[in-house]
TrEMBL record:
PANTHER family found in the cross-reference section: BLL6097 PROTEIN, SUCCINATE--HYDROXYMETHYLGLUTARATE COA-TRANSFERASE
Taxonomic lineage of the native organism: Bacteria, Pseudomonadati, Pseudomonadota, Alphaproteobacteria, Hyphomicrobiales
Protein name per its UniProtKB record: CoA transferase
Pfam family, one: CoA_transf_3
Species this protein is from: Rhizobium lusitanum
Transmembrane annotation, as ranges: none
């Protein structure tokens, strides 16, 4: 590394990343934020696919969102010299991450078996849409597709609505967190045994894990259906959901009918038993809904919170960015880019008492091949050899 690293948990850990799009890069960025040296392998010239998404001034915001604390090395993986460079990197690396379709890395000669022969201690994470085998092996795996397949879309919205996807890539980012956790566990295992291993993860497994509550209940005979009033969960009792007020909206979470009756000054609500709050949820919701129009969101929040009701505001992203708790937690930071100017980014969600985890990144997302010469010099390549590789379009 050319920059002095703070004493972060993964300082000294080298990760070779073949990750692409969202799931893979988000996985390794979590490791990079904790000090790992991430070397991202990209195509010479054009770079990785995610550089073409959500452009601003010709720059991909998706790429900048997911690639801080990473270095870019361009390589033609089909060229023998390109494979030789990967093998040299792997020899001194700790982790390899890839999320190509199953079989791609094996066909390139860069699968786990081949690379573990070079470095038996390598931790190799292979992430895919559906896993390394099975009837969906050839299908495309992507966040929205998995929201539809695994029931998430069918569990969201009103009963009469079409299945409704969430407004964020929740499966990609949940999968990324699980991937980083799995890699951390494998590195810890290696400290005890000296052995590396292959880790297979999938968006499908992550999507099912994300919905443990609903899937578990269904598997054990508890059938849930969406409410017509649009409660936030098919298994929730009323009034669990969003309510419009005289001005703005709020959410009301778990609450007993007795507590709610007192807070809303509506005795009929207390007549609903705990079981009836679910079986008669449409009826209960219909009682609560017009009452909420009597006050503004701010007035209701002051009143309900004072009564011990679990509730909160409904904010837009613009409002979130100036939320006092958001600002107190310092979740956003600014970084400079030569063409984009000031970029506001989201810090690592982790804070640790025994490591000086920086709230700001050590490096911004790289340009295509920005660190190619740097990485090759670390492998012992001289200027003439690097120039020859560039002439042959290997890098």
């Amino acid at each position: 590394m050319t920059e002095a690293e703070p004493n972060l948990p993964f300082s000294g850990v080298k990760v070779i990343s073949f990750a692409q799009l969202a799931q893979g890069p988000a996985s390794v960025q979590l490791l990079g934020d904790l000090g790992a040296d991430i070397i991202k392998i990209e195509r010479p010239g054009t770079g990785s696919l995610e550089r073409t998404y959500r452009l601003r001034n010709g720059e991909s915001l998706l790429f900048h969102m997911l690639h801080r604390n990473q270095r870019s090395l361009t390589l033609d993986l089909k060229a023998p010299q390109g494979k030789d460079i990967v093998n040299s990197l792997v020899a001194t690396a700790d982790v390899v991450v890839e999320n190509f379709r199953p079989g791609v890395m094996d066909r390139l000669g860069l699968g786990y078996e081949a690379l573990s022969n070079i470095n038996p201690g390598i931790v190799y994470l292979s992430a895919s849409g559906f896993g390394p085998s099975g009837p969906y092996l050839s299908r495309p795996g992507q966040d929205l597709i998995l929201q539809g397949l695994t029931g998430l879309a069918s569990a969201t919205g009103k009963r009469s609505d079409l299945p409704t996807p969430t407004g964020a890539s929740v499966i990609d980012l949940h999968s990324a967190a699980l991937n980083a956790f799995a890699i951390s566990a494998a590195l810890f295992h290696r400290t005890k045994t000296g052995k590396g291993q292959l880790i297979n993860t999938s968006l499908m497994d992550a999507a099912v894990h994300l919905q443990t509550e609903n899937v578990f209940d269904c598997a054990n005979g508890i059938k849930k259906v969406r409410s017509e009033c649009g409660l936030a969960s098919p298994g929730a009792s009323a009034p669990y959901g969003v309510f419009e007020t005289k001005e703005g909206c709020i959410v009301i979470s778990d609450v007993s009918t007795a507590q709610l009756a007192d807070a809303l000054e509506e005795p009929s609500i207390a007549e609903f038993t705990k079981e009836e709050a679910y079986s008669r949820r449409e009826e209960l919701h219909a009682i609560v809904k017009p009452i909420m129009m009597r006050r503004t969101a701010e007035e209701w929040l002051d009143h309900l919170l004072a009564k011990g009701i679990w509730c909160g505001p409904v904010k837009t992203y613009d409002e979130l960015l100036v939320d006092p708790q958001m600002e107190h937690n310092k979740m956003m930071f600014e970084m400079q880019h030569p063409r984009l100017g000031t970029l506001r980014n989201i810090r690592s969600p982790i804070t640790m008492s025994e490591a000086p985890l920086e709230r700001h990144p050590r490096r911004a997302a790289p340009e295509v091949g920005q660190h190619t010469d740097e990485v090759l010099h670390e492998l012992g390549f001289d200027e003439a050899r690097i120039a020859a590789l560039k002439a042959d379009k290997v890098v």
